[in-house]
C-alpha cells in the first residue's frame, strides 16, 4: 500500500489535487488529438522528465514503475506497424504488411501510449486519493455521497486484504486442499466469496451506523476535515505546464527531429 508513498514532497505535491486532475486531463486530450510525431515525442520527453525529477521518488523506483509501459509501447506500436494500412509497402508476408505510413503511425501511437503512462504516473505519485476527493467536493462541487463512497472504499481496501489473508491462513490451518484446473478455481471461489461478501456487508453497515450517529447528512452545507484551496502553487503549475507544451510545440516546428506528421 506504500508503493506510491514519496520519499520527499516536491512542488507538484502542493498543487490543488482537483485542479491538477483538470490540467492533466487537458494535457491528455492534447496528446490524444495530436498527429505530429515530433510534437508527440517532445511531449513524451517533457512529461518523462517531469515524472523523474518531481515525483518525490528515487530514480530507481520510478524506473522500475515505468518498465511495464515499455511493453505497452512495443505492443501498441508493433500492432500498428505490422497490420496498419498504407500505400508505400516496405515488406509484406501473409497478413503482415509493413508500410511507410503504418510505421510512422505505429511510432506515433507508441509515443502517445508512453505519454499517457508518464502523465498518469506523475499524477498518481504526487496526489493523495483522500485529498483528491476532498478537493473535488470543495472546488468542483462533487456531491458528498459519491466522494465519501470512494473515500470509504479506499479506506477499506487494506481491511479487505487483511480479510483475504486471514481467510487463507484459516483454510490452510484446516488442511483444505484444492483440485486442479477449473474445479479448483470453483472451490476457491466458493470458499472465499461468500465469507468475504458477508464481512464486507457487516463492515459497510457499521460505517453507515457510525455516519448516522454523527448526524451525517448529504444535502446540508458542511465543513471539511481537510480544507483545500487554490494557492500560488497552482499558478506556478499552470505556467509550468503551459511552458512545457509551448516548448514542445515550438521545438517540433522550429527544430524537428523527424519532420513528418499525419494529415
UniProtKB/TrEMBL annotation:
Main location group: membrane
Location of this chain's protein in the cell: Membrane
Membrane-crossing residue ranges in chain numbering: 17-33, 39-55, 62-83, 235-253
Keyword Calcium part of the UniProt annotation: no
Keyword annotations: Membrane, Transmembrane, Transmembrane helix
Membrane topology label: Multi-pass membrane protein
InterPro entries named in the record: ABC/ECF_trnsptr_transmembrane (IPR003339)
Keyword Transmembrane helix: yes
Pfam families referenced in this protein's UniProt entry, alphabetically: CbiQ
GO cellular component: plasma membrane
Protein name: Cobalt ABC transporter permease CbiQ
Source organism (scientific name): Paenibacillus dendritiformis C454
Amino acid at each position: 500500500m506504500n508503493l506510491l508513498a514519496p520519499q520527499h514532497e516536491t512542488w507538484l505535491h502542493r498543487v490543488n489535487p482537483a485542479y491538477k486532475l483538470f490540467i492533466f486531463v487537458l494535457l491528455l486530450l492534447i496528446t490524444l488529438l495530436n498527429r505530429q510525431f515530433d510534437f508527440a515525442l517532445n511531449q513524451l520527453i517533457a512529461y518523462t522528465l517531469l515524472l523523474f525529477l518531481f515525483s518525490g521518488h528515487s530514480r530507481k523506483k520510478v524506473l522500475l514503475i515505468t518498465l511495464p509501459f515499455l511493453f505497452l509501447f512495443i505492443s501498441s506500436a508493433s500492432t500498428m506497424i505490422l497490420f496498419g494500412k498504407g500505400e508505400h509497402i516496405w515488406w509484406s508476408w501473409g497478413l503482415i504488411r509493413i508500410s511507410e505510413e503504418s510505421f510512422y503511425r505505429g511510432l506515433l501511437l507508441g509515443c502517445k501510449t508512453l505519454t499517457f503512462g508518464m502523465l498518469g504516473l506523475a499524477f498518481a505519485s504526487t496526489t493523495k486519493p483522500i485529498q483528491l476527493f476532498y478537493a473535488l467536493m470543495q472546488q468542483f462541487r462533487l456531491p458528498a455521497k459519491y466522494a465519501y463512497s470512494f473515500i470509504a472504499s479506499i479506506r477499506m481496501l487494506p481491511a479487505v486484504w487483511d480479510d483475504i489473508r486471514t481467510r487463507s491462513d484459516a483454510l490452510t490451518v484446516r488442511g483444505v486442499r484444492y483440485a486442479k484446473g477449473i474445479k479448483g478455481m470453483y472451490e476457491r471461489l466458493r470458499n472465499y466469496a461468500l465469507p468475504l461478501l458477508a464481512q464486507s456487508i457487516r463492515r459497510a453497515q457499521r460505517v453507515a451506523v457510525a455516519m448516522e450517529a454523527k448526524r451525517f447528512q448529504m444535502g446540508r452545507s458542511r465543513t471539511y476535515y481537510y480544507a483545500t484551496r487554490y494557492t500560488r502553487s497552482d499558478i506556478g503549475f499552470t505556467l509550468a505546464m503551459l511552458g512545457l507544451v509551448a516548448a514542445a510545440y515550438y521545438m517540433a516546428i522550429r527544430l524537428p527531429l523527424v519532420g513528418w506528421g499525419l494529415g
